[in-house]
Write a structure and sequence with these properties.
Structural class: alpha/beta
Radius of gyration: 21 Å
Number of helices: 7
Order of helices and strands: HHEHEEEEEHEHEEHEEEH
Bound molecules: zinc ion
Largest sheet: 7 strands, mixed
Strand content: 15-25%
Distance between the termini: 78 Å
Length: 284
């Protein structure tokens, strides 16, 4: 009896069926305003400023294009600037998903993204010629120290992502911010869209040139998913926050477990690891 060749075709499983399921490559993008091309003065960072919205959204959408072109399956964008009120579902890249609102100390990282990226990022407080350099709060926080080392959003969030086994692969922002990430993750890909001359002076790319650069670098970064290692801070952590003179601590400060009041405007928070210390700090 002859076997009809059509049955042979149906009996041989396809390569796709034999291959083990590949995890989805999701990129989680943390957005901010101070590192966007064309943004150099404080009043330009008002979350409802129409030009900021246009410039920031344009850079985000260019990054989403780049990540997808470089092999990412999905891109999740958090509106991370000042109260999460800058981005809109009406103008965000059609293939991106938007996260709006406070996302807590773990920043949804427990969802297990393949990579984290910073977009529009600024450098930490006190950096020479860092454009609008600050650590979380420009008016409220003078300095932040992690195990004695000055840190800002870049190192704390990169280390937090590392605690969940997730690498930071990309940053766009000013030259000082790019340097700050490279100091801890040399393999990360950066797009420098402007250079600081002072806190509120800069030389910036045009919006069009910044988008082109970001698209290209984001694609390069996505292609490096799997080869960039997570940045981890192992062991117990002490986080010291020095507030500004206009922002002294409440009378109850230092009474919570793991926290210690150093002086009227400085607090230390201890944890068995970074996640515990950070959760204690953010959860106060
Ligand atoms: Zn910021």
């Amino acid at each position: 009896m002859r076997i009809n060749p059509i049955w042979l075709v149906l009996l041989i499983p396809s390569a796709a069926m034999q291959a083990p399921a590949q995890p989805r490559k999701s990129v989680f993008v943390i957005t901010d305003a101070e590192g966007v091309a064309g943004i150099c003065r404080q009043e330009q960072t008002d979350p409802k400023d129409p030009e900021l919205r246009q410039l920031l959204t344009g850079e985000i959408n260019a990054a989403v294009d780049g990540f997808l072109a470089g092999g990412a399956d999905e891109v999740i964008v958090w509106d991370g600037h000042d109260g999460s009120q800058t981005l809109s579902a009406a103008t965000i890249h059609p293939r991106a998903r938007l996260v709006i609102g406070d996302i807590g100390p773990r920043m949804t990282l427990e969802r297990g993204y393949a990579a984290v990226a910073f977009l529009g990022q600024h450098s930490m407080a006190g950096v020479r010629a860092g454009i609008m350099a600050h650590s979380y709060s420009s008016l409220g926080i003078q300095n932040m120290l992690l195990n004695g080392k000055p840190v800002g959003e870049i190192e704390t969030r990169t280390a937090l992502a590392g605690s969940f086994g997730i690498p930071v692969i990309f940053l766009s922002g000013d030259r000082a911010a790019a340097k700050e990430l490279h100091d801890i993750v040399p393999e990360a890909v950066t797009a420098e869209v402007k250079e600081g001359l002072a806190r509120y002076s800069c030389i910036t790319l045009s919006a069009a040139a910044a988008r082109e650069l970001i698209r290209e670098k984001a694609a390069e970064a996505a292609r490096k998913i799997g080869s960039i290692r997570p940045y981890r801070i192992n062991g117990p952590v002490t986080l010291q926050i020095e507030y500004t003179t206009r922002n002294s601590l409440p009378i109850s400060a230092g009474t919570q477990p793991g926290s210690e009041l150093v002086d009227d405007r400085t607090i230390r928070i201890h944890g068995k690891d970074l996640v515990e210390a950070w959760t204690r700090y953010q959860g106060r």
